[in-house]
Request: fold
Amino acid sequence: MSGQYWFPNMPIPEIMTALSEWGLSVSTEQLVRPSADFVMGVYSACLEQVTSISSNALQEPIQSALDSMDDANPDLYAASISHNFLLYHLTRFANAARIMDFSSKDLCHPDPERTRFILSAFINFVKFVEQCTPFTGSLRDKSVTVTEEREQVARELATIQHTLTALKTQRAKDEPKCEELRTENAEITAHLMVTKETTQKVVKEIEALKNINADTALLLDTISRTRSRIVQSPERIKRNITTMGAAAIEDKKAIAQHEAKARDLQAKISALSTIEKDLRACVEQLQTTEKEVQLLEAAQKELADVKDSMDYKKIERSELQMKKERVYRQLANAQEKLERAQRHAEEKRHASQQTIERLQREYEQMDVERRENDKQVEELRKEADDIETKMAEHLKKSEVELNELLAEYWKLRHETEVYMETLANKLNMNVTSD
Reply:
């Protein structure tokens, strides 16, 4: 048994009291000479106190194992499978109670001292679990809450990923149309450039025509002034004027048509520019959404790691606190045992002193009797020698017992100091031994 996980080896009355608290009635005879059925029942009860695993709870997996066997008589293996299942759970339970060498021998061929040792470990572990029940219950509740939050976040992440996938799919579907619109936009832009050049030429021609009209107006004015003075072939002049007016009207119509066409082309260019800006904004929003989803996943992962680390630190802190309290209780028990040993040694020393005093009185009385009766000197000397020999043996025996008690005390104190130093190293504390 490691010194780091020391627990007291309980006497039989304490074991019986602890088991009676769980509704198990055992006798001293059963603990002194344990049988296989007895230890199986007691160990199963201890296992059920912590894990709620009983023989009835194991019936379903045992039946499943028997059903999965390809054998004509699976009932032949029922007892061995049941024994192996129970042994597996008891071994895990024993490992948790810091009994690393638990085996099938402890069930089939129990040894009294070994059985009391295992029961002491099991009872100590069960009481420890009962003390930690509120803390473990709160941890289970927190674990359930964290699991629900994680599932909710996973569902939200799946929804976001589904939406992102749909957007990507829609983007992939719209990509050919966007390509067509880009191509059409490029063609319209080229056509608009050509149209712009043509429009500029037409505007120049219109300006030239306007200049011609101004010149024509001047000429008409000159002609009208001239006509007022000289009238030669008025009909021909009227026809020329009518022809020139019709030509001017046609030129104005052509100019109006070109201006309307230019305005339409300009409106189409503006619409295509707006569509292109919207497409770019959609692409930027998709990229932003992807980045935010990645940041959200990283933040959630980091949050989960921090929560797990915090829970682990809390559990480790509580375990160290409980180990510290258990060490203090063990130290108190050791001090109590030491005090009992010291009292016992003092009582023995006092009894030895009384014996010595009584023998001294007897010796003095014999010395007086020797002076009174010289005839019995030799006999009294022999009796005195015998008494002195007994005194020496008794003193030697007392000194041996006292030395054994002191050796046991120093051994126990050394183990306690080693354990306290190990615990201080774990907690990074400075402990000064007295």
Observations:
- The first helix runs from residue 12 to 21.
- Residues 159 and 165 are 10 Å apart (CA to CA).
- The two ends are 26 Å apart (CA to CA).
- Confidence is low (pLDDT under 50) at residues 1-5.
